[in-house]
Amino acid sequence: MKFLRENWIALLLLLVAVVFLAVGICRGEAEAVWQKAVRICMECIGLG
Amino acid sequence: MQLAFTALSNGFVQGFSTGRIYQGDTKRLCLPGLNCYSCPGALGACPIGSLQNALADGRFRFPFYVVGFLLFFGAVLGRFVCGFLCPFGLVQELLHKIPFPKKIRVLPGERIFRKLKYVILALFVILLPLLVLDITGRGQPWFCKYICPSGTLFGGLPLVATNPPLRAVLGFLFRWKVAILLAVVLLSLLVYRPFCRYLCPLGAIYGLFNKKALLRYELDQDKCISCGKCEKACPMAIKVTANVNSMECIRCGACRAACPRGCIHLKGTSKCKGEERRVETERCDS
User: Fold this and answer.
1) Chain A: residue nearest B140 by CA?
2) 8 Å CB contact of A33 and B30
3) Total domains in the fold of chain A
4) Do B9 and B44 contact (CB within 8 A), yes or no?
5) Cβ contact A21–B212 (<8 Å)
6) Nearest-CA distance A4 → chain B (Å)
7) Residues 6+ apart with CB under 8 A from A6
8) ipTM of this predicted structure
9) What is the pLDDT of residues B56-106, one digit of tens each?
10) Which residue of A has its CA nearest to B175?
11) Can you give the residue range of the structural domain that contains B281?
12) B137, B198: one domain
């Protein structure tokens, strides 16, 4: 109980994080991240 | 720990010899630190690169997925990520260990420089990728393109060294990014983690969580004798006793180790260690 009282903001943020991750996955955002991450990013390496 | 995590998150060893990047499923996941996804060894995605791309993409009004990762890491760890889980933080830390005639603890204009990372976050990571669009309606990852020295070090240099076709297209932008990298490298010899302190937008985000993250410090005011040893020991030059959970704190633990009375501890952990140390100190004093 003390743990919950002292950390309720962090726990609430964690809950929001999990919801956001789930929403993002459902909207196909994980796929978009993967598509960008598996190709050499020309901007990142200073060529784009 | 820093070395182990960097090796673990950049474990695609053959990428460094072949000049190719990892293309497996784990690249759907964002890593906690500033870890360029174009590093040949990277097994995950860079959260700042992914955030800019999600904003620049235009398909998603709000990047729930990447923000979810940032919230998750921030709520649990805060800037502990900077101290222990960031490859570029490790590089700066190692550089700072190189002996140099005069190390600088605080730069002139330190307070203003420290605010730069928030400007970079707002401008280069959020606003410019979101608002400056090309004719196809897509933005650019401005921070990755014009600033990020981590991308140059872990992505650009290894790929250019091992991938001949890439060498043929080097131009002004590459030279600009190498110049930024060199400046950070040289400054790291003098100042502790200058990129983390002044420029890193990911550190700026995690810093916002420091006060409320599950992993945070607590200062026992009753036991503190204001000896100032924690502040002298802090490599980030934070006023520890005034704000033990400062947005600049990377949780390196130097203040905890320096405190003779064990006044600083992780929230929710036992105070026994501090008590033992206090008894030892009093024994020494007497």
Assistant:
1) A43
2) yes
3) 1
4) yes
5) no
6) 11
7) B267, B268
8) 0.94
9) 987 878 999 999 999 999 999 999 999 999 999 999 999 999 998 889 999
10) A46
11) 217-285
12) yes
